[in-house]
Amino acid sequence: MDKISELAQVSKRTVYNHFETKEALVMHIMSEMWRKSTIQPDFKYIPNTPLHDQLSSILLAEAKMFSSKENLELSRVAFGHFFTTLKRYKKRWVSFQQEKPPCFNG
């Protein structure tokens, strides 16, 4: 949440006013990134321009979007949250598996 509020240049309180939990924020970021990646650019086929040049323009626009500072920062935050959460749950699962149920402590 610190990184998000820093990127947005708002307080953490403001972020929490819009997103109840970190998970809700991360899911919003991920769905927004997905939406942006699936938007079809407004390119029109131009018969007199070589197809190679037109396709190159589309690929460059996609690469620019994915490599933008905004997209990279949001990706780091979202994926960092998922990996941290996954590690925490795995750690809890391992400790849970190692515990003996009370009925076996006899």
TrEMBL record:
Transmembrane segments: none annotated. The keyword RNA-binding does not apply. Residues 1-37 form the HTH tetR-type domain. It comes from the Bacteria. The keyword DNA-binding applies. Keywords: DNA-binding. SUPFAM superfamilies: Homeodomain-like. It holds the Pfam family TetR_N. InterPro entries: Homeodomain-like_sf, HTH_TetR. This is TetR/AcrR family transcriptional regulator. It comes from Vibrio algarum.
